[in-house]
Amino acid sequence: MSASSVARAAARIKNAKRLVVLTGAGASKESGIPTFRDALTGLWANYNPEELATPEGFQRNPSLVWQWYDWRRQQLLEVHPNKGHYAIVELEELVEHLAVITQNVDGLHQRAGSKDVVELHGSIERFSCFDQRHPMKDIEFGLAEPPLCAYGNCRSKLRPDVIWFGEALPEAAISRGFVECEEADVILVVGTSGIVQPAASLPFAGKRRGAFLVEVNPEESALTDACDLFLKGPGGEVLPALIEAIKKMEL
Ligand code: APR
Predict the structure, then answer these.
(1) Ligand 1: residues whose CB is within 6 Å?
(2) DSSP readout, 132-182?
(3) For 61, which DSSP code?
(4) Per-residue pLDDT tens digits for 96-147
(5) Domain ranges of the chain
(6) Which residues are known catalytic residues?
(7) 42-77+128-162 maps to which CATH number?
């Protein structure tokens, strides 16, 4: 990240009325949360996404899938939001309107204090039943099998409220995502490889309506060419530097 590109991004954000921050797994990397693929190591190295993160996989082996998500949910107890998450919270004070649109299921933006978070891929901390999607809360850790839905006579197995491969995104979340991006003056894209649809289309939808795209990532992604500015580096370093630059302009 060069000082001049940070200053240019800061100037754009300072003049923006509506800002979107679109995040992916990279935004949680410095909190120590492994990406989905990183997590398929160690104990879980012999499994693949089709077994662990599809409706068919769940139907074939519900206890395996339950235990995989239980393990990932337990990991969340030991981690904390990082400097990048907190910088995004600070941005709320610096622009009129900010929406965080995330592909992450870890709830770290909310834990950091972001007020308006759209979860495109659901949340690992919520549950609903497989058949009817009745929502269920307060599920204990360490169960070997999915508990059954307690709603009426349903008794369907509970599943995590995340979007699995082959499933549609929640309609309300993805439409809100498109509206926010289309109305945004600036879209800050943080820590996503930009290859999973439909989330990867959001920056393009914004760009078509004139949004200025700024990317924060230590590596180039599938979105880099479409972005107006590329701030190379980890979110936990680049985002606080961006906040500092915006604040300096306000003096
Ligand atoms: N700060 C910012 N970005 C980072 C950092 C960091 N510290 N570390 C890594 N990155 C970047 C990587 O360079 C990569 O571009 O984060 C991106 C992570 O890419 P993916 O793992 O593909 O994550 P994401 O784009 O969120 O994947 C989308 O795919 O696995 C499914 O449903 C899952 O929501 C996920 C979706």
Answers:
(1) 24-26, 29-30, 35-36, 103, 121, 190-193, 196, 216-219, 221, 234-235
(2) T--EE--PPS--SSPPBP-STT--PBEEEEEPPTTPPPPHHHHHHHHHHHH
(3) -
(4) 999 999 999 999 999 999 999 999 999 999 999 999 999 998 899 999 999 9
(5) 3-32+81-121+169-249, 42-77+128-162
(6) 121
(7) 3.30.1600.10
